[in-house]
């Protein structure tokens, strides 16, 4: 069964590793730009995480990509660093925070 981009973001909090996020008070944001566009933010505070559909005004890090690329990264079929290096994934803001994302969320379903 294939999830939609929206369903994938709704499932994000179930894949959040609160131990890895201990002490982080930051907000990540994803901007999906293709046929199923949307913006989702994920706020981390004191080891807790919450999804914010529609995004926020001032995230610490923003990822911009297509739904297909994001699904492949989230499902573990695409390496996020390779997607970034080939221009499929754009990152704006705190690059150190962006590098921690693979540790903050478990991939695969």
UniProtKB/TrEMBL annotation:
Record InterPro entries: SCP2_sterol-bd_dom, SCP2_sterol-bd_dom_sf
Domain of life, source organism: Bacteria
Gene Ontology cellular component list: cytosol
Start and end residues of each SCP2 domain: 17-105
Protein name per its UniProtKB record: SCP2 sterol-binding domain-containing protein
Organism: Kribbella antibiotica
Lineage of the species this protein comes from: Bacteria, Bacillati, Actinomycetota, Actinomycetes, Propionibacteriales
């Amino acid at each position: 069964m294939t999830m939609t981009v929206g369903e994938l973001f709704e499932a994000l909090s179930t894949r959040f590793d609160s131990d890895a996020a201990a002490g982080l008070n930051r907000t990540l944001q994803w901007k999906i730009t293709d046929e199923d566009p949307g913006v989702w933010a994920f706020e981390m505070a004191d080891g807790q995480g919450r999804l914010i559909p529609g995004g926020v005004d001032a995230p610490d890090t923003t990822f911009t990509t297509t739904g297909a690329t994001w699904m492949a990264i989230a499902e573990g079929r695409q390496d996020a660093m390779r997607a970034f290096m080939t221009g499929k994934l754009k990152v704006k803001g705190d690059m150190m925070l962006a590098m921690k994302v693979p540790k903050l969320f478990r991939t695969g379903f």
